């Protein structure tokens, strides 16, 4: 569809969403007196629709400044929203007529029918919002003063739009390279207790609390090499921390950053990200330690962990950063209030940098880290500039392990060794490291295609192979050719990732 036709279609869709949203709110309000416990559900629907209406108004104001790739994606998302809202109105309307005519039924029974229908409306609206958010925050990457002007206008804003505005403000501050802004995110180590409890399986992550309080925080230390200029490392850390200050953990699957501690050392300066631990969460473990323990984990829990990790990768990309270190050791999983496996969060920002910034050309030969790196990003001198697809490849290896619920890296006498289920000894011993790296990649793809269908189904299997083959010229690469995804803002790869990876994982969790 050409841009003009798409714009007209979207305007019509937006109007229908708002019109039927208001009709649905009025219809629900008329049923409040049927039963007292309906009021809370109706209030939730009203709140959700009003927030959505406000966000749609912001989208309408931003439309002409949004890249065409993102416009097309939003057009599809809005069509789905229109179908959900109009469908919800028609279904609630039908249910209301039914219960009003069913005079032979007790009022409480009629209220149960309506309650079920209204709960479904809440679920559908929340699900749409959850799926829409990742692409909404991609606007962070679009360089446009018009977007900033629209976001900073005095018109009403929903929480997502306010968060987007704050994130863009942080991005703009970073681009200005203003020294006064850099210092504001740094905090003193004296604010925290000296006792630090390391998270098992990590050497750079620990738990502590404020000296004058009980609020727990997670400290995550960088691992910059001596060749990384101190100013560059400090700038990257500062800019990321200011963005992570505005994240919503339940939405982003990233912890909120409260500040950064500068840690001078003999081999150079490192930095501790100070992450707030959400209330109700306890007993942090790395995903690696859970995989090594081999404790039971239901399929639905594994899908949730996969979704959370996929979302965190998306939001790191939305902030215009690449992680470069995604593996089970850099995913922390908390226990929830019942003691079960709870939410997970991506940490391990050891060598974080901006997606468009200079990359370190220094690597390492640690096979247990190289296992999660694309073959062209392995070795002492990686061949290629780091792309989002390299993070997606790392995600694919992690998703494979989550599906198998088994760690490819085992610990034997304090030494990391390959799992017996990962026969890569010959590849590791290959003197041609590049050839060996691609042999390991082929082995991972083979394991996925051979073992995953009967364990997690065809959809999850295809997701894993799509991640592992995201830079291949093959049918397994559903993201498309890298040359077709090149754009100034990194929007193309973000949209394809949402549509072909994240969105399908969300479907599995629905």
UniProtKB/TrEMBL annotation:
Top-level division of the source organism's lineage: Eukaryota
Molecular function GO terms recorded: ATP binding; protein kinase activity
Domain Protein kinase: 192-510
Residues making up the signal peptide according to the UniProt record: none
Coiled coil spans: none
Entry protein name: Protein kinase domain-containing protein
Organism, as annotated: Aspergillus bertholletiae
